[in-house]
Automatic annotation (TrEMBL):
The lineage of its organism: Archaea, Nitrososphaerota, Marine Group I. It comes from Marine Group I thaumarchaeote. GO terms for biological process: translation. Keywords: Ribonucleoprotein, Ribosomal protein. This is 30S ribosomal protein S21. One of its GO terms (molecular function) is structural constituent of ribosome. It comes from the Archaea. The gene is rpsU. Gene3D superfamilies: Ribosomal protein S8. Belongs to the bacterial ribosomal protein bS21 family.
Length: 76
């Protein structure tokens, strides 16, 4: 359970920012969205596989960019 203590004379916007940060770090909102409807196990596996593929592609692109940056540094 998330609790945010409001300090005396603290701006309400600042309190809301702290609350939002606490919710995001705890993962409450993500869990609520995931459990808002039932997802079949086969679809869950498919989504997990797609996410893994996307992450692998992202990691490969990051390595390519790093290699290009290193190569550009050699030519300077």
């Amino acid at each position: 359970m998330i609790t945010i203590k409001v300090k005396r004379n603290e701006n309400i916007n600042r309190v809301l920012q702290r609350f939002k940060a606490a919710v995001m770090s705890e993962g409450t909102l993500k869990t609520a969205k995931e459990k808002s409807h039932f997802v079949k196990p086969c679809i869950r596996k498919r989504l997990k596989s797609k996410e893994a593929t996307r992450q692998k592609k992202k990691d490969e692109m990051k390595l390519i960019r790093q290699a290009q940056n290193e190569q550009n540094e050699w030519y300077r």
